[in-house]
Amino acid sequence: MASPADHDLALQAKRTSVARAVLRAARVLGRIHRPSTASLHLVYSVGHFRLLAGALWKISGRQPAQPLLIMLICASPPLFVTLGSYYVVESLQTLVAAWFIFVMAAARRWRPALTLGLLFVGSASAALTKQTTALFCVWPGLIALVCALHRARTRHDWGWQTPAVMIPWIAAVMLAAATSMWYWRNWKTSMAYVIANTRGPVGAIWGKEDSFASTLIYWLGTLPGTLILPAIAPVMLGLIAAAIFHRAVTARDDAGPYFSICGVAALLQVITVLIAFSYNINRESRFLLPMLPSAALFVCWSVAHFGSRLLTGLTLIAFAGQFVLVWGYIFHVLLPAPHILVRGIDRDGQDARLLESIVARTCYDATPLRYVNTIAIDPTFRGDWLAPEPANYVAIRDVRHNPNGPACVYDYVGGGFLGEGADTTWDDLVSQKVHYVITIDPRIHAVPLKTYNRALDENHFPSFWSELERSPLFRPEPPLPEDPSVRIFRRVDQK
Question: Mean pLDDT, the chain, as a whole number?
Answer without folding.
Answer: 84
